[in-house]
Design brief:
Layout: E1 3-6, E2 9-12, E3 16-17, H1 29-41, E4 46-48, H2 62-74, E5 82-87, E6 89-90, E7 98-99, H3 103-117, E8 124-127, H4 136-149, E9 155-158, H5 162-171, E10 176-180, H6 191-200, E11 203-204, H7 219-222, H8 224-233, H9 237-248, H10 261-268, H11 277-285
Parallel strand pairs: 3-4, 4-5, 5-8, 8-9, 9-10, 10-11
Antiparallel strand pairs: 1-2, 6-7
Helix pairs in contact: 1-2, 1-10, 3-4, 4-5, 8-9
Length: 286
């Protein structure tokens, strides 16, 4: 599979987003583990998760533990698969989301995530979402401390604007490895952040790159250009969409969510799809 770079790691151009395997409507654990194994078999060696990817109260880290279990079943260690997790976003168990960007909380959350993942140091740890009650610099300072003490190997941020990218990279001493923002044909407001990351050489990780769990099936109906290109190439509209995102910049590593083996197999195939200059131009114009 085509490769990309996150920090000092070479990873597959398509990652696996673990959230659908742990939130509302999730499959049973066996199917989730089969999905993760299918990703590995397809050449995916980058998996994204978060301690907040769970459904019920009292099961914080559900997705982290699921991924750790699946990797143990394949004997896949941290040197083979880069697992990125996030902290600072919480789900109380009632379907809502809250933030906690306090440095002491983030540091403990990272240590707890490392235990659930079964690693001495987290490969990539990302601040999940800014907390309006905590200065951004304080939250990023916690990531800097985690880097310095070796609890995490790389640091990233999520749901960030350009000013926050600049501030985080400065506080981290130029060590910001990734930015994970929502980006898809349906949600283009992070295009400026993508382009900024490209200028800085920072990995840009689109979450919900197909428009989200509920909206992905509408891709073909809402975006005629993507449907047309997919038909020309003989691939799914999902592969055409991910191929477009990959073509935007070599720093882009989409992380489509999946809860079925066939879904991640299809997504992984996008790394081998080559768009012509004309097709890329049409998709960009659309």
């Amino acid at each position: 599979m085509q490769q990309r770079t996150i920090g000092d790691r070479r990873v597959s151009a398509i990652g696996l987003g673990g959230m659908p395997m742990s939130i509302e409507g999730r499959p049973d654990a066996d199917r989730s583990i089969t999905t993760i194994h299918a990703a590995l078999d397809a050449g995916v060696n980058f998996i994204d998760t978060a301690d907040a990817y769970h459904r019920d109260a009292g099961e914080v880290g559900h997705n982290e533990e699921l991924i750790a279990r699946a990797l143990r079943g394949r004997g896949a260690g941290a040197d083979e698969v880069l697992v990125a997790t996030k902290g600072g976003h919480l789900r109380p168990g009632d379907g809502s989301w809250t933030q906690n960007g306090r440095p002491e909380y983030l540091k403990q959350a990272a240590r707890d995530s490392a235990k659930r993942l079964g690693v001495e140091a987290i490969g990539l740890y990302q601040f999940h979402r800014p907390d309006p009650e905590v200065p951004y610099a304080d939250s990023i300072g916690a990531l800097r401390d985690l880097l310095d003490e070796g609890t995490i190997r790389m640091a990233g941020i999520s749901n960030a604007n350009i000013d926050q990218i600049e501030e985080a990279n400065e506080i981290l001493g130029g060590r910001l490895a990734s930015v994970q923002n929502q980006f898809s044909p349906r949600f283009l407001s992070s295009l400026e952040e993508l382009e900024h990351c490209a200028r800085l050489g920072i990995a840009f990780l689109p979450w919900s790159p197909l428009g989200g769990i509920a909206n992905a099936p509408e891709l073909a109906d809402r975006h005629a250009a993507f449907r047309s290109v997919a038909e020309e190439l003989g691939v799914s509209v999902y592969q055409a969409t991910l191929a477009w995102e990959l073509a935007l910049s070599p720093v882009v590593v989409p992380i489509p969510g999946a809860s079925r083996p066939e879904s991640i197999r299809d997504s992984a195939g996008a790394a081998e799809v080559e768009l012509t200059d004309d097709q890329l131009a049409r998709l960009i114009a659309a």
